[in-house]
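Hi support team,

I submitted a single chain yesterday and got back a structure, but I'm not sure I'm reading the token output correctly. Could someone confirm the output below corresponds to the sequence I sent? I've pasted both exactly as they appear in my results page.

Thanks,
R.
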Amino acid sequence: MLDQGLINKYRNKEIPAQKLFIDGNWVNGSGADFDIISPIDGKPFTSIARATVGDMNKAIKSARDAFEKGSWSNMPPAQRKKILHNLSDLIERDAIELTVLGVRDNGTEINMAINAEAGSAAGTFRYYAESIDKVYGEIAPTANSVLGLIHKEPVGVVGTIVPWNFPLMIGAWKIAPALAAGNSIVLKPAETASLSLLKLAELAAEAGVPEGVLNVVTGQGSLVGKAMGLSMDVDVLAFTGSGPTGRQLLEYSAQSNMKRCYLELGGKSPNIIFSDAPDLNLAAKVSAMAIFRNSGQVCVAASRLIIEENIHDDFIKDVIKHANQLQVGNPLDLSSDVGAINSETQLKSNLKYVNIAKEEGADIITGGNQILQNTGGYYMEPTVVTNVSSNNTLFNEEVFGPVLAVSKFKTEDEAIELANGTEFGLSAGIWTSNLSKAHKMVSKVKAGVVNVNTYGGADMTVPLSGVKQSGNGADKSMHALDKYINLKTAWIQL
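Hi R., thanks for writing in. Yes, this is the structure output for that exact sequence:
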């Protein structure tokens, strides 16, 4: 159980200027450092190195050299397994420090962050550590005169770019399976959430990950992220972030070595409430939390609430009741249910979407404003917007903030049409007691994850993957290993 005193031990700890982690060493960036502004109070509390293209190329060369040398790629699987378990242990040992560091950086409420960040990362590394000695090659069903062997080999150098909302969790989703498969990695964190991943590099070295196998390069995505995308020596690129950036990375791949790109992009996820839901009050509470936790800064957030018309008004009252009970405040206080918006830029974007919704005829029935300006930080009320039609901006574009767009439907077919009416297909929710209806909706709704009578919480045993313009490839589960493995056939005439 979290203890406020232990949190306070780290909340004002002085953080030295951060360096790049390349080839097992902490080195200065070639550019001027960035100040890191905490969304909690709007004040700088440390800085990170600003890498240049040259720095990124050094990191990629370090990863390539380590891979070719075989210090990790040729290490016996049992030894790699032990090292990843060591890393899990170290993450658990330093979980509070890691979590507080991340919260100061990105503003996620610590009640959520302790499990979603450090807790999830430790579990992810442990899960893929256990996979190392359980993934086998194959023998093909050939004629007796031939032996067909299918080998599974690491791809080489994996470049990863992760966002600011859950950097440690999403970073682990990519780093852990890539390491388990025997690859070397270059990681580029978001400018506004690099600190926990730099700490992870320190722990990885302590755990025994060899030099050059994990490199962390901070800086501007438009500069060093582009350099990673254009590199001829990166074999796979794994990215979580926005659609426009994902498109750029695909272009960089085409312009360079046609590296495989796996993209987990945005979402505008529908949460469909039928009148026969088993517990409408629970559905309302979960619906509120599914958009307002972490101030809506969640790729799978249920940002579109689609309600059967005959229960619409009463259900919205319940959602508002639960929303208004949420305490927005300092994310390092255990009393806060919702923390800060990641940056001033993101806050302004959120408020812009609220104004657009008003201009397009939707109704702001609760929230919609910046709050706690006296703190200097970036906070926003949970916001519910009704009468959102399928041609409204708020229906179609990802806000990535605490803004819920509400629509209504009369028939199942109309619900399906609304659910599928955007370019996205990441997650969805269905609330019904009718098993037949539930199966039909799971089949018809175009999303990588469909929750039934719940929202969120799927563990490492199942994949997270998008369809349509929400991306490709899978994070989590054994399927994630497929991204970081090459298949090689040996066809042997006996």
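A quick pointer for reading it: The longest strand covers residues 146-154. Let us know if anything else looks off.

Best,
Support desk
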